[in-house]
Amino acid sequence: MPGSKRLKLLSREQAILEFNRRVLAQAQREDVPLLERLRYICIVSSNLDEFFEVRYADVVEASKTHGTGIDPAYMVDVAREAHRLVEDQYQVFNDVLGPALRGSGVHVLNHADRNAQQREWVAGFFRKQVQPLLVPIGLDPSHPFPQVANKTLNFIVRLGGRDAFGRDNDIAIVRIPRVLPRVIRLPDHLCQPGQQCFVLLSSVIRSHLDELFPGREIKAFSQFRLTRDSDIEVDEDDVTDLRLALRSKMSTRQFGQAVRLEVVRSCPKDLSDFLLEQFGLGHAALFQVNGPVNLVRLTQLIDQVHADSLRFAPYVAGWPTDLPQHGGMFEHLRHHDCLLHHPFESFDAVVAFLREAVYDPDVLAIKQTIYRTGSQSVLMELLLEAVRRGKEVLAVVELKARFDEEANINWAERLEALGAQVVYGIVGLKTHAKMMLITRREGARLRRYAHLSTGNYNPKTASLYTDLGMLTSNTELTADVDMVFQQLSSLTQLKSPRQLQLAPFAMQKQLIRMIARVAEAAQAGKSARIVLKLNSLTDEPLIRALIEAGQAGARIDLIVRGACVLPPGVPGRTDNIRVRSVVGRMLEHTRILYFRWGEQDFEEALYLSSADWMNRNMTRRIEAAWPVRDPVLRQRVIDQALVPYLLDGRDAWTQLSDGRYERVLESGGHSAQQALMDLHRASS
Which DSSP helix (H) or strand (E) runs through 392? Predict the structure, then answer.
């Protein structure tokens, strides 16, 4: 279509920051329980940590390379927007949530707020629990500036007077061990009736800094926290054992290139300048915050407050209605595919499926991809039990799942020690597809059963993230899954799959062809519709195809939780494309792809996928998308996982053509997530 390639896409970094603005807005919603609003503040901080550790660090590094096309002014714009977001975050924390917490009897006490008894208790806690673990370092030629690990809490102190040896070195650094709690609850008898009182570790240390430097005067001080590039880079073409190479690299992750420095707003300029110089950072990297330098740790406050009324009411997911609860899954799946909608339907069904396979003497083999399972996992324990019971177990462990590398290495080693076959996917590619394959002897034949999912095999996140999974014994689909496992283990070139779309092989091209089919239908005056539900939309070839389809007359709805760089509603360019984002109680994580190119039932297709529409997913990851062909299940996905989100009038945002978002607030509007919770809630 003319002009589509000339349309400038939005900034990916700005899109990520815009997403965090939507998360921050949750902290301002009066219809959200107070501690949950504080949790959204913590989530913003956690998201920003990862943004600086990974995305921003990569852009900074690329900007240093000539010919990358990254304008230094762009880096300034991104930094400026990040500063504005942090300013707004602390304003909400201090001016909105702080007073609201105090009004609800939850008090975080600074030194000036503490009475004599409370100060005495805090002093005792400091001397018994904190001071023995602190090692102040006075800087001089024999005590150079210490290594500061990523995201650790530290104090910088300017001292008056002379040290024990008569010298006037005036700067000291105090590193705060991570083993110390960041939020400490005061005994109830020290608080007024109906109050719960807490102190922050930083406040405890600040109040007793002078005890760390006897005979010296504390002239100035500040908390500080450094964020570093935390991506682990391994030259996979030059290693013989990826697991050993990654384990050795993990020890250096804490000391990557510095990218951000946080200090308290009261930090004197000479101290912040000194720190910037030590870390080789410019002034744009300095964040002077109006409060604790690490709001992420306030999750410890949320966990310690005794007030159920300040939290979301507990949600107990129901068992999938079309799946037997007490065994007999294989018999059921021989006749029916089963759709699982988490967290609205219990993830226990997936655990039960694997458990039944492990303890079934007719099950011969189990194959599973492992991306993010967590350090404690009932699923991994079941795989270990399967090996003990003599079943053939193949685990495709993704060692490069960011920030989960150590847990995955540990699981890989435990599985190998018992005799499981463990492989690490394909060099240069992350295995991001979520698949489990069970092979069972049934009479004179072997039958396969598969579980495919848009989300990870992690029961904890499965209670917080929205995802769709499918259990099936479809012979074509299970054969495709088996073929993927063969390729991941043997590295051989196999024939094209019958039902799966696979990245990095053909998924992107197949999706572009499907978009083009819808565009052709629109040009022919037929019904032409695309609805996508994704976490991120940043892949340029797919975006250009969507723009052309929209210009051809196709109606396109994009439900994108996070970063979307396609500008909707640009006159003459993207008039037919709407983009909305839903941010609610759960993290939207489902990937659904719906295409219609005519009026007949056979002129539509619906896929579920492990892949977002990002370049890395299409070109640098093993990903899978699979069709939902059962008309009943397909309609269920449309009715429960697409339409409610298109009509959401409480948790939805509409994207504007300049990348900003406006909240969709409808009187009496429904929340898609709440409606699904009500639909699937376990009966009491």
Answer: strand 392-397
